[in-house]
């Protein structure tokens, strides 16, 4: 039976690297993006019948639930969930625009919460599965221009820890991925050389390696930084 992975936010950056990696490993890949145009480009680039795409804005609970229902209708089984959808809006609590906190909490935290809840019963029924939450070094470090982004990522790490405790006796593994600056469109316009960043493919390879471990073993948190360290926000 084909194995399946659900990757939220798979049209670019780390999500796209994950789509590429798991297609190479023979998985059925279910992914979403807010942009149908980017999903069309993704499907055209990989031209693989095992890639299934769906347009949805996961900051909206109803669209999360619609995406989950679509996955459950198409997938015979789900083995991995990667909660990767995210948005980065730099700023400071003292002066960021009204609504910035809500937007980042809805996108970075609530999407993972609602998608996990929707797909958990499939993992629980077969007493196996692996959930990866894309946290950040901003989940453990307060950056000067991190503002609400840091708040949302601290909260996502907290949710990951809670989910790990809730599901560890159910055969479900839960892992927090905490990448530093990764070469994705979030850094477009920043005048730094590519070698100053983590390649997105390295994050995908790390998730694959964590999944490959014995079911009796779980990597609870994986912290990844550029060799030269953090890039200050």
UniProtKB/TrEMBL annotation:
<keyword id="KW-0560">Oxidoreductase</keyword>
<dbReference type="GO" id="GO:0016491">
    <property type="term" value="F:oxidoreductase activity"/>
</dbReference>
<dbReference type="InterPro" id="IPR002347">
    <property type="entry name" value="SDR_fam"/>
</dbReference>
<dbReference type="InterPro" id="IPR036291">
    <property type="entry name" value="NAD(P)-bd_dom_sf"/>
</dbReference>
<protein>
    <submittedName>
        <fullName>SDR family oxidoreductase</fullName>
        <ecNumber>1.-.-.-</ecNumber>
    </submittedName>
</protein>
<comment type="similarity">
    <text>Belongs to the short-chain dehydrogenases/reductases (SDR) family.</text>
</comment>
<dbReference type="Pfam" id="PF00106">
    <property type="entry name" value="adh_short"/>
</dbReference>
<dbReference type="InterPro" id="IPR020904">
    <property type="entry name" value="Sc_DH/Rdtase_CS"/>
</dbReference>
